[in-house]
Amino acid sequence: MINAAMYFVLGFLTAGLLMLVFGPAVWRRAVRLTRRSFEATSPMSLAEVHASRDQLRAEYAVKTRRLELGAGG
């Protein structure tokens, strides 16, 4: 009975020490991956925001023109 309790405590302490050793590395990697994915989805500069808006306007103009041509106007 005491052996089982000692093994349990020893395992718990070993797991805690391993988390203290490897925890910061895992945390840094998680932060780096999260930052990378966030930066990939958000625009990098004001010029990119304007370019994206201009692209949407151009696509809308093309669709509108195609509808006008299709309607005979």
List keywords for this structure.
single chain, mainly alpha, 0% strand, 73 residues, rod-shaped
Task: Tell me what portion of residues adopts beta-strand conformation.
Answer: under 5%
Structural class: mainly alpha
Shape: rod-shaped
Question: In angstroms, what separates the terminal alpha carbons?
Answer: 91 Å
Radius of gyration: 29 Å
Low-confidence spans: none
| SSE pattern, N- to C-terminal | HH
Estimate nothing, just give the exact number of structural domains.
2
Helix proportion of residues, in percent? over 70%
Oligomer: single chain
Per DSSP, the total helix count is: 2
- Count of individual beta strands: 0
Largest sheet, described in full? none
Overall pLDDT: 91
How is this structure best described in words?
- The structure is a single chain.
- The longest helix is centred in the first third of the chain and has 40 residues.
- 89% of the residues lie in helices and 0% in strands.
- It has 73 residues and is mostly helical.
